Model the fold of this input.
Amino acid sequence: MMHARSAIHAAFAALTLATLSFATPTAAADKVDPVADAKAFQKFFTDKFPKLKMEDFVNGPYSMNEDLHRQWVEKEQFPPYEFSLEMGKEMFSKPFKNGKSYEDCFPNKGIGIRQNYPYFDEKEGKVITLELALNRCREANGEPPFSYVKDEMAALTAYMAFTSRGKPFDIKIPNDPRALQAYQMGKEYFYTRRGQLNFSCATCHVQSPGERVRTEVLAPALGILNAMPIYRSEWSGMGTTSRRFPT
Done:
């Protein structure tokens, strides 16, 4: 079971890396070029929604629907996720049993660094997500790891993300065959159709952003991970990136 969870997390890590790099299919299947993909992906969305500025896409569906945007602004006065932020802040500040804390594991004591994850660790040859880094911190200090989809991880990452508000993601993929392979794996996962409806991530978030599925307006893939972890009414709480991808 532990190996299965690790494999699933590795797949989501690669998918996150590719999504944050704005991956799109390239003309040459044997050519992996994240920079060219990013430019093409951004152009696709700015052409599709010419009234929006690049910085608007961080607001997801709220940037393309005036009623939703107004409701969102009103909710932000008394955000329903505030309890999770408070929980995350308390958890982040509480020392481990050995006296150390999360501050000892991260640059800048863990504040304002969310935008730097995920990154490719060239020494390890793998993608490091914030969730993985947090669990490594816990285990290095004698604490059990958190589930990648439960409330504790959602609260911790929500607090850390909140301290990075206004800082754009700046994910760099080194010219390393292992990094390019991870990027390509995430890209293929993003565009692969699966399930009874034969949908891919791109079916909703590239082909159909701005359209409605029942009462929900589909968000564009460009900038979508800026909202993670995310509050959803159906969950009555926050959800991590790992929880959101399968649903």
Notes: The first strand starts at residue 119 and ends at 121. The CA atoms of residues 18 and 183 lie 5 Å apart. The chain has nine helices and six strands.
